[in-house]
């Protein structure tokens, strides 16, 4: 089975999304563009890159960022949205720690700055905890501001290269199979 067929079976049909959702119906002129649903190798690879980059955006803005970038670059929207899902409550802190360390490295702050412990949520005072998380984030400052986009770009570039290579391998394998079936050299 080709990569394209595999993806087509798993992707939602754009008409179904746009017709069944009252929220999306006004956006139909923008979301109905064929390029947003295209399964060309470069568009899918760019969508993976955009999704991986957008996954590191703060809080609930990840899918919004991925959607806006997909609209801007006219790349596969569902793939871009799905690729943001690698961040979750279990992976978010390790990724931000990695981004913080990368930011320190890029800024030349080797041992001068230490990441403070993350505020613990007591289960009752959500508003105070949110302020503590904001203060925690602001304390990290420039290393985080530099590290998050740098890590996002690195993940996006890696995702792009991996998708391009895997897609090429799949196409070569299909050509070999076709050649074997036909019995030609």
TrEMBL record:
Positions of transmembrane segments: 44-72, 144-172
Domain DUF2062: 24-176
Organism domain of life: Bacteria
Keywords: Membrane, Transmembrane, Transmembrane helix
Zinc-finger among keywords: no
Signal sequence interval, chain numbering: none
Protein's name according to its UniProt entry: DUF2062 domain-containing protein
């Amino acid at each position: 089975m080709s990569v394209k067929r595999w993806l087509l079976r798993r992707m939602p049909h754009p008409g179904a999304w746009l017709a069944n959702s009252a929220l999306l119906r006004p956006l139909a002129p923008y979301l109905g563009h064929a390029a947003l649903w295209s399964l060309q190798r470069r568009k899918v690879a760019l969508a993976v890159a955009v999704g991986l980059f957008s996954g590191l955006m703060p809080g609930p803005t990840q899918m919004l960022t991925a959607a806006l970038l997909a609209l801007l670059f006219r790349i596969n929207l569902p793939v871009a949205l799905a690729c943001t899902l690698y961040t979750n409550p279990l992976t978010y802190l390790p990724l931000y720690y990695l981004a913080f360390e990368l930011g320190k490295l890029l800024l030349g702050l080797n041992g001068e700055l230490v990441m403070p412990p993350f505020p613990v949520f007591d289960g009752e005072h959500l508003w105070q905890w949110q302020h503590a998380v904001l203060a925690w984030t602001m304390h990290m400052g420039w290393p985080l501001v530099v590290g998050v986009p740098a890590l996002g770009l690195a993940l996006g570039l890696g995702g792009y290269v991996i998708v391009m290579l895997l897609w090429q391998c799949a196409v070569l394998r299909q050509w070999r199979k076709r050649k074997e079936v036909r019995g030609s050299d």
